[in-house]
Amino acid sequence: MKRSFLSASAVLLTLAWTCLGAAPRPNILFIMSDDHAAHAISAYGSRINRTPHLDRLAEAGMRFDNCFCVNSICSPSRATILTGKYSHLNGVPTFNRFDGSQPTVAKYLQTAGYHTGIVGKWHLGSEPTGFDRWIVLPGQGLYYDPDFIDPDGRRKIPGYVTDIITDLAIEFLRNRPADKPFFLMCHHKAPHRAWEPSPKYREEFSRKTFPEPATLWDDYRGRADAIRECAQKVSQNLTRRDLKLEPPPGLAPAERNRWLSTAPDEVEVELDGARHILRGNALTAWKYQRYMQDYLGCVQSVDDSVGRLVGWLDEHGLGTNTVVIYTSDQGFFLGDHGLYDKRFMYEESLRMPFLVRWPAATRPNSVQEALVINPDFAPTFLELAGVPVPADMQGRSLVPLLQGRQPADWRTSFYYRYYHDPGDHNTRAHYGVRTQTHKLIHFWKQDQWEMYDLRVDPEELRNVYHEPHLQSTVAKLKAELYRLKQAVKDEDQFADRQPPHDVGGPEPRQKGKQPAAKQPKA
User: Fold this and answer.
1) pLDDT above 80 (res 520)
2) Are 223 and 243 in contact (CB under 8 A)?
3) Which residues pair with 450 in a beta bridge?
């Protein structure tokens, strides 16, 4: 027997849309890339690339400037978006297998009469549930000639993954039932590591040079140990595979893999017609350029995809009544603080792009400054569809903000927690609070703290936690951190589990134990 996730009031509301002559419920197209930093979108002021199709989306709707994730890593963010709940409640604090029997936004919308679908990256271990149509990549998926899984099994689709996912999304739109609104989650693999651009953009971007971020050479002075200990540094941790270096001929397979998996301390390259051996800072600068050439080449295909999808909607008369959303599952370091990857609660990793075109209600070229978090996405989808938001969802609908109204009681702070310690990148577990002006981070295993005044230090270079004249601010932030921790019911259910090793596969593996998180002192 199929379980219903809708209350009687929701069913009545759904019937009202049909029977009382209300305007048709909007379609929802949710486009999410993987690891796309907001500061690699020109609508957000990028210094390093241009994204014309995403810019047009922002111009036609609303750009959210303060949208954040509450656990900056792939699977947890996806689980939060599906459930509207923090990691400790949805069961995915790291790379745990997602329990598909729990309520999700897809199930609520499906029961309310929406035709639901997901294409592209899933990365939650279990099979998707609540979708009328699903076809997803196994694990992380491949950039070229990827395998896909659907209810009929596994098959390889030739081509480049971003183009294929776009084709599958258009196929879903073309074959949808005409008498139902649709909810489609189009999830791109790009620009996730291993950063493999399409042939077109690989060639084009290999000739480009990009300005270095102001904090590429950050020396981490005054910070907690975590940033020095992490293994996600451009200078030290980008491997020969990441840098697309060609191994010496004649290596046995195991030797070849070891060679590719290690970071070079020197590289011979051709510059201005001559061969040069790069070491030290010169090598770091070159690594940054190689990283950006590939990462941004992947981004360009995602931008093209957005143009194709929005163009298809408009050409087929669906643009007016479709809410189009673009986001990423979290932010990403683009050499900022000398780093790549995400995980840390620093701004570049924490911030998500969030662009929304809703012609029926959102003014073009509008900008929203309110604090928004990814648990808000599911309640937003439900309110757009006229479905009541369940009381156990921890986010708030963004519909009032999209309509240009900010509720008087809108949040002025939010809680963040990262669990995957040590993980592949040796990034320490931490939790914290961000307000509109400050950030407080607790690396609880080391019992070390960082605090930043974002008004005067937006690049987070000066840890002012120990400044004597700021101890009253520290105390207020600790009190707010503890209040939020209780408010979201984070009682450390997962603190006695050692997170599984991040290999990009679906199955969690249990190891040992880790100590319970220390409560911040008020």
Assistant:
1) no
2) no
3) 441
For 78, 385, 392, 414, the CA distances from 375, given in Å and listed in that order, are 10, 17, 11, 11
Question: If we measure between CA atoms, which residue out of 326, 323, 397, 327 comes closest to residue 362?
Answer: 323
The pLDDT tens digits of the residues spanning 455-475 come to 999 999 999 999 999 999 999
Residue 67: strand pairing partners: 352, 372
Answer whether 426's CB lies under 8 Å from 231's CB.
yes
State the pLDDT at residue 19.
45
State CA 272 to chain mean position distance.
38
Contact 385, 25 (CB under 8 A): yes
> Is a pLDDT exceeding 70 seen at residue 179?
yes
pLDDT at 489 over 50: yes
Residue 522 in 3-state DSSP?
coil
Query: How many Å apart are CA 80 and CA 501, to the nearest integer?
Result: 20
Task: Assess contact for 300 and 49: CB atoms under 8 A.
Answer: yes
Please calculate the CA angle 369-430-284 and round it to the nearest 5 degrees.
80
Looking up tokens 């090598």 gives: 283
- Other CB atoms within 10 Å distance of the CB of residue 376: 27
Quick one: how far is CA 322 from the chain centroid? 22
Burial level of 13, CB count in 10 A (0-12/13-18/19+)?
middle
pTM, two decimal places: 0.92
Chain-centroid distance of CA 333 in Å reads: 12
Three state DSSP letters for 127-167:
CCCCCCEEEEECCCCCCECCEEEECCEEEECCCEHHHHHHH
Beta bridge partners of 121: 137
Cβ neighbors of 272 (< 8 A, separation 6 or more) are none
> What is the residue type of 174?
R
Q: Which of 410, 278, 288 is nearest to 337 (CA)?
A: 288
Q: What is the pLDDT of residues 45-83, one digit of tens each?
A: 999 999 999 999 999 999 999 999 999 999 999 999 999
Domains in the chain, CATH or no CATH each: 23-196+293-407 (3.40.720.10), 207-288 (no CATH)
3-state secondary structure 97-126: CCCCCCCCHHHHHHHCCCEEEEEEECCCCC
Compute CA distances 212 → 158, 300, 452, whole Å: 36, 19, 23
Q: Pick the closest to residue 223 from 332, 331, 337 (CA basis).
A: 337
What is each CA distance from 333 to 282, 337, 350, 442, 508, in whole angstroms? 20, 8, 10, 20, 26
CB atoms within 10 A of CB 300: 23
CA neighbor of 172 nearest in space, from 377, 359, 309? 309
Contact criterion met (CB below 8 Å) for 478 and 521 = yes
211 CB-contact burial (10 Å; exposed 0-12 / middle 13-18 / buried 19+): exposed
Residue whose pair of structure tokens reads 């984070």 in the numeric block: 490
